[in-house]
Amino acid sequence: METQELLGFMGGLITTGGFVPQVWRLFKLKSAVEISLFFTVFFVIGISFWLVYGIVAGLPSVILWNSITLILGMSMLYAKVKYGGPIHDK
Amino acid sequence: METQELLGFMGGLITTGGFVPQVWRLFKLKSAVEISLFFTVFFVIGISFWLVYGIVAGLPSVILWNSITLILGMSMLYAKVKYGGPIHDK
Q: Which positions, given as ranges, span the membrane (chains A, B) (predicted)?
């Protein structure tokens, strides 16, 4: 694997991997008051743009990891809506 | 600006932008118990890899936004250490 793709693969693996314990934690604590609703919404939208960017640019690491991160991002958004406390509390 | 770079620019702007209210919220609430320590540590490491990936691959959007996200990631890590509750509580 080329250095460039290895760096992207590692970056994606570690960053995306880090979201798993974060999502797990929200569902374990059944609490997401500290999580910003703006963050979760922007994150899902932003990651979608990165995914299309990866497809257009033909970058395997960007495609792979942003697909998985998108799912984790949507789980965080779900946790925020379900456990985030009063909805006006952004 | 090429479509590819525009997508990357938008992806970075929205994703990174979303972190600002998240970091702000942790410092406002002075609480980061829901934030996973694994997430913040992995995030900082992972984003560093993405930054080097962007430099090696010569991708302006990846370089720009991962530099800013790295700073925001380190602020989240600081907030977790400062307000995250008992350190063993990952």
A: 6-24, 36-56, 62-81
Query: Which ipTM did the prediction report?
Result: 0.83
**Domains of chain A by start residue, with CATH:** 3-83 (1.20.1280.290)
B41, amino acid identity? V
Give A-chain residues touching B74 at CB under 8 angstroms. none
- For residue A33, the Cα-to-chain-centroid distance in whole angstroms is 18
Instruction: Give the minimum alpha-carbon distance from B20 to chain A in angstroms, rounded to a whole number.
Output: 8
Longest dimension (CA), chain A: 48
Distance CA A53, CA B12 (A): 10
Closest-CA residue in chain A for B6? A53
Per-position DSSP letters for A25-61, written without gaps between them:
HHHHHT--SSS-HHHHHHHHHHHHHHHHHHHHHT-HH
Distance CA A25, CA B9 (A): 31
Block residue for tokens 């090429």? B2
One pLDDT digit (tens) per residue for chain B, 90 residues: 788 889 989 999 999 999 999 999 999 999 999 999 999 999 999 999 999 999 999 999 899 999 999 999 999 999 999 998 754 444
CA–CA distance, A30 with A32 (Å, rounded to integer): 7
